[in-house]
Amino acid sequence: MLIHPDFDPVALHLGPFSIRWYGLMYLAGFMAGAGAARWRIKTQPWLHWTVEQVDNFLTYVVVGVIAGGRMGYVLFYKPEFYLTHPQDILAVWQGGMSFHGGFLGVIIAGWLYARREKRRWLEVTDFVAPLVTFGLGFGRLGNFINGELPGRVTSVPWAMVFPKVDAFSRHPSQLYEACLEGLVLGFLLLWFSRKPRPMGRISALFLIGYGAFRFAVEFTREPDDFLGLLAFGFSMGQWLSLPMIIAGLWLWLWSGKLDKMSRTTESSLAMRDK
């Protein structure tokens, strides 16, 4: 049995100010994503992105993640509480961020950026999909450092006690998510995007991959005490992941059909020109 190290959530004290590990993990995720974006535009010239465009787009992404993540938590998890305590909605330092809300925030940010730059929306989402995994991985490490969002009670050899929660041995589900949603999904998307793909395919793979990994890990993660398990014994995270998987499968098929139609049209035009 392992014991959670019970890290101090504050990484650095600067007089009356403090820098928390969770915030540093978000920063690390954004920096790693920015570095990967620059690497992609250098090694994948068919993307047609510049460093300046990447920097501008990442600004949209940061706002989308923070605003969407917070509003997703407010609306999906505690709508009754925040309806009666609206002054707490902006108190992000108290915790409470939702990936699915942050995901929707990035989708909206990508749409706004695509409109501004006159790019196709799926072209933008295909570019950002592999970069999101860095934020997912580091974010879950932040959860682990804080000792929050622990797993369900278990007797597996690597079970861990989280003293801030209780004295029971639990799955370190934060590390499962960091590994699957960060490392595994990130490697898969970067590998898949190493050469040109039909528009929408990379976004589809992200939706399917994240949705499937999150759905699976939720079986080891302790449900939120204020929600518990919902219909069919699924958690809120699982119910929010199912539409992602369905949308990803549909987008994968639609992308293939669109690519096939495009190739057929190009072939017909070439034959006509001859």
TrEMBL record:
GO terms for molecular function: phosphatidylglycerol-prolipoprotein diacylglyceryl transferase activity. GO terms for biological process: lipoprotein biosynthetic process. PANTHER family: PHOSPHATIDYLGLYCEROL--PROLIPOPROTEIN DIACYLGLYCERYL TRANSFERASE, PROLIPOPROTEIN DIACYLGLYCERYL TRANSFERASE. Catalyzes the transfer of the diacylglyceryl group from phosphatidylglycerol to the sulfhydryl group of the N-terminal cysteine of a prolipoprotein, the first step in the formation of mature lipoproteins. This is Phosphatidylglycerol--prolipoprotein diacylglyceryl transferase. Belongs to the Lgt family. It is found in: Cell membrane. Its main location: membrane. It comes from the Bacteria. The chain crosses the membrane at residues 19-37, 57-77, 97-114, 121-141, 175-192, 199-217, 229-253. GO terms for cellular component: plasma membrane. The gene is lgt. It comes from Ferrovum myxofaciens. The keyword Transmembrane applies. A 1,2-diacyl-sn-glycero-3-phospho-(1'-sn-glycerol) binds at residue 140. Pfam families: LGT (PF01790). InterPro entries: Lgt (IPR001640). HAMAP family: Lgt. Keywords: Cell membrane, Glycosyltransferase, Lipoprotein, Membrane, Transferase, Transmembrane, Transmembrane helix. Pathway: Protein modification; lipoprotein biosynthesis (diacylglyceryl transfer). Its EC number is 2.5.1.145. The keyword Transport does not apply. It is a multi-pass membrane protein.
